[in-house]
From TrEMBL:
The lineage of its organism: Bacteria, Pseudomonadati, Bacteroidota, Cytophagia, Cytophagales. Its EC number is 6.-.-.-. HAMAP family: BshC (MF_01867). It comes from Runella aurantiaca. Residues 360-513 form the Bacillithiol biosynthesis BshC C-terminal coiled-coil domain. One of its GO terms (molecular function) is ligase activity. It comes from the Bacteria. Keywords: Coiled coil, Ligase. It is an enzyme of class 6 (ligase). This is Putative cysteine ligase BshC. InterPro entries: Bacillithiol_biosynth_BshC, CC_BshC, Rossmann-like_BshC. Residues 1-358 form the Bacillithiol biosynthesis BshC N-terminal Rossmann-like domain.
């Protein structure tokens, strides 16, 4: 697989806070710990070397329970060893893996673990996929796009999505264009969506050592109990993260998350709702559940699994139960982690490295040939349709569509007219300038009409160009945010292997991927560096 990297800023697809972070702008350094370079991992390993052995024991037992129905599983026992560390990514439990970037996240985690193993052979590194099983936003996970068609899961189930039964997806399996045994096994044989996701991720990446973890676990939550009590009684996380948020916004950045006074949901079967404090009473929204302070603390000790952290505290929960070095996230996740470092400092938990996932656009051979025939560059594919159309016609036309020379000639003529007019009557200056403006505006309109006429002359080519853009950027968004990996995997069952052999987890570029190999660039690009990684 050929990989042609582009600087992320040339794509116009990433927020300023994310771009400034990967550029290591000095004013952002207080909002994170070590920046993710290979040499800095030595410092991160040292920071995490004091991870409690009793937490490792609880973690391994929890994973053994979660993997009990999987026959061929990754080596879980090595997580008990003090020199074993993990690198983590996570996402919601989108059906059929959801958008392509979920796969890119996991590939980044696997390749990072490989890279660290080679660089630090005295330690062991395990890639981890944090399954967002406690999330209750079903609409976000309920669909996926395959070959231009949207498939949607309709259900009456409510509550945490990880606890839902996935067998209803049997109907979706029947109408797929091809059979996909890995999903048939997962969705038809597993009791919960969490089990199903673990099942198919293990089929796809288990051989690479990927470990899937479900945080919806009573014993793992018990390790988080001090934070639960602190949040119920003191609500410090709200104050700390608000202060950090204000600092980031003062720097001109848009922030991602809004902290709550209590950053926990109450979680039972069929229900995951926010906990709020009203006077001396703790209430669960959209329910009849209310508790006194003594009652809610008692429930936390008896049933810690009922306390589900929201986006503000979930990262802290992850770092308390995992010997984690880095979190691998996208352009929205990395910025919201920057809002949270003060919370980690307050609870004296090492802050992980924040590593951008790999980003990519895959171009098959047919689309590549079309792009080459049209003479479009990689950067131009990221432009909006109006700019892309205008630039293409101007670049392709054999005629000059600009009237710059004519405008300069008019300017010179009116300089002479104005000189003559002023010599006769100085009050004529305004009238002469007004006439000049009218003439120049007329030329502007003529120029626009010339360009429109030439666009019509190239209508076939323009339509081909916009069709290519629509194919590579479905619904006007990045391919990785819309298409499912099955778009490529069904045509090439080595697709995942190629990604694993191509992505560099520490190269923060946008990767243009094609199946061509060799030293030549895929097609014309002004900013590409031409890195090539054969699969």
């Amino acid at each position: 697989m050929h990989c042609q990297p582009l600087p992320l800023e040339t794509t116009g697809a990433f927020p300023p806070l994310f771009l400034d972070y990967i550029s290591q702008k000095a004013h952002l350094q207080p909002f994170y710990g070590h920046f993710p370079t290979l040499s800095n991992f030595e410092k991160q390993i040292k920071d995490k070397s004091q991870f409690p052995p009793e937490h490792r024991a609880v973690l391994v037992k929890a994973l053994e329970r979660q993997y009990k129905n999987i026959s061929v599983k990754p080596d879980l026992a090595i997580l008990n060893e003090p020199n074993t560390f993990v690198v983590t990514t996570g996402h919601q439990l989108n059906i059929f893996t959801g958008p392509l970037y979920v796969i890119y996240k996991i590939v980044t985690a696997v390749t990072l673990a490989r890279k660290l193993q080679a660089a630090y052979p005295d330690s062991k590194f395990v890639p981890v996929y944090w399954m967002a099983t406690e999330d209750h936003d079903f609409e976000e996970i309920s669909y996926f796009n395959l070959f231009g068609k949207k498939y949607t899961w309709q259900t009456q189930q409510r509550g945490a999505v990880g606890r839902m039964t996935p067998r209803e997806l049997g109907e979706a399996l029947k109408i797929l264009p091809e059979r996909v045994p890995v999903f048939e096994k997962a969705y038809l044989q597993c009791d919960t969506l969490a089990d199903a996701v673990r099942c198919y991720m293990n089929e796809l990446f288990g051989a690479e050592g990927l470990v899937c973890i479900d945080g919806d676990d009573a014993e793992l939550k018990r390790l988080f109990l001090p934070v639960v009590e602190s949040e119920i009684l003191q609500q410090e996380a709200h104050k700390i993260s608000n202060a950090t948020t204000q600092k980031l916004e003062a720097e001109g950045y848009h922030t991602q998350i809004t902290p709550r006074e209590i950053n926990f949901f109450y979680l039972i079967d069929g229900l995951r709702e926010r906990i709020v404090k009203e006077g001396d009473i703790y209430r669960v929204l959209n329910s009849d559940l209310t508790f006194s302070q003594e009652e809610i603390i008692a429930i936390a000790h008896q049933h810690p699994e009922r306390f589900s952290p929201n986006v503000v505290l979930r990262p802290l929960y992850q770092e308390i139960i995992l010997p984690n070095l880095a979190y691998i996230g996208g352009p929205s996740e990395v910025p919201y982690w920057l809002q949270l470092k003060g919370i980690f400092d307050y609870f004296q938990v090492p802050f992980p490295m924040l590593l951008p996932r790999n980003f990519a656009l895959y171009i098959n051979s047919a689309s590549q040939k079309r792009a080459e025939k049209l003479g479009v560059t990689v950067e131009e594919l990221f432009w909006d349709d109006v700019k892309l159309r205008k630039t293409f016609v101007e670049k392709t036309s054999s005629l000059s569509l600009e009237l710059d020379e004519e405008k300069r000639a008019i300017e010179e003529v009116f300089v002479a007219i104005l000189r003559k007019a002023i010599s006769i009557d100085k009050t004529l200056e305004g009238a002469v300038n007004a006439e000049k403006t009218k003439v120049l505006n007329t030329l502007e309109n003529v120029e626009k009409r010339l360009k429109k006429a030439e666009e019509r002359n190239y209508e076939t080519e323009v339509n081909q160009l916009l069709g290519l853009k629509s194919k590579l950027f479905p619904n006007g968004s990045l391919q990785e945010r819309s298409d499912n990996f099955l778009n490529f995997y069904l045509n090439d069952n080595t697709f995942l292997e190629k990604l694993l052999g191509t992505f560099d987890p520490l190269d923060f570029s946008f990767n243009i991927l094609t199946d061509e190999e060799g030293e030549e660039e895929v097609f014309s690009s002004d900013n590409a560096t031409g890195r090539n990684n054969p699969a």
